[in-house]
Amino acid sequence: QSVLAQPPSVSGAPGQRVTISCTGSSSNIGAPSDVHWYQQVPGSAPKLLMFANTNRPSGVPDRFSGSKSGTSASLAITGLQAEDEADYYCQSYDSSLSGFVFGTGTKVTVL
Amino acid sequence: EVQLLESGGGLVQPGGSLRLSCAASGFTFSSYAMNWVRQAPGKGLEWVSASGSGGSIFYADSVKGRFTISRDNSKNTLYLQMDSLRVDDTAVYYCVKSRGQLRNNYWFDCWGQGTLVTVSS
Predict the structure, then answer these.
(1) Is B5 on the interface with A (CB under 8 A)?
(2) Which residue in A83, A87, B29, B75 is a FRET match for B52, CA 20 to 30 A apart?
(3) Which phi and psi angles does A82 have, rounded to 5°?
(4) What is the pLDDT of residues B60-86, one digit of tens each?
(5) Which among B58, B109, B114 has CB closest to A99?
(6) Is B65 exposed, middle or buried (0-12, 13-18, 19+ CB in 10 A)?
(7) Please, which pLDDT band fits residue A1 given cuts at 50, 70 and 90?
(8) Contacts of B44 in chain A (CB under 8 A)
């Protein structure tokens, strides 16, 4: 059972804004440990989407943005597009487990 | 271009062993920490093990004592020796390059395509 909780699913119409929350605790996000985000299109390997809370790797559209506060983090997608339909995972380090942890995952559906 | 190519997956009986390999190219392999991350069918991602560039090694509690990570920097290859395999070890195993400081600021920047390990009688 993951220590980082995410909503199972979120959805929105093309062009809308959706947000995905990642809720942790004082032993991971609140330690503080940085939060990173990954996108996984069905049938493909995950891809890094955001690192160190708010940083986009080269090639990731600026429609994606990240934030972190206290023991939680969020990923926002503005101007939702059909190609954004995928599973999204947050990731951090947990000092109690002495290991890296992923969120439970959120499926984004474009209506 | 970074490339990570896993091999060695397959079907194994409970209690058996398997060795995964990951051939890396496109970057200075010895300078980066490397990892194995797995994904059970229809489930989320689970970090398995990390091998730091300086020799440090870390394991998830679920595999500690059963799995062994190693690397051969002369061959640009990462390995995962899996012993005492259990049915719940069934998953796609990804070889993953990482950045940042091992622990609080550490992320997975490049992923291989994965190799499927099935543990079943």
Answers:
(1) no
(2) A87
(3) -55, -35
(4) 999 999 999 999 999 999 999 999 999
(5) B58
(6) exposed
(7) low
(8) 2, 89, 102-105
B8-65 pLDDT tens trace: 999 999 999 999 999 999 999 999 999 999 999 999 999 999 999 999 999 999 999 9
Alpha-carbon A63 to chain mean position: 14
Q: Who's near A36: CB < 8 A, 6+ residues apart? A: A48, A50, A51, A52, A53, A90, A91, A92, B107, B108
Cβ count near B45 (within 10 Å):
26
Pairwise CA distance, residues B82 & A82, whole Å: 39
Residues 6+ apart with CB under 8 A from B97: B2, B4, B24, B27, B32, B33, B34, B35, B108, B109, B110, B111
Q: Which of A64, A95, A28, A34 is nearest to B107 (CA)?
A: A34
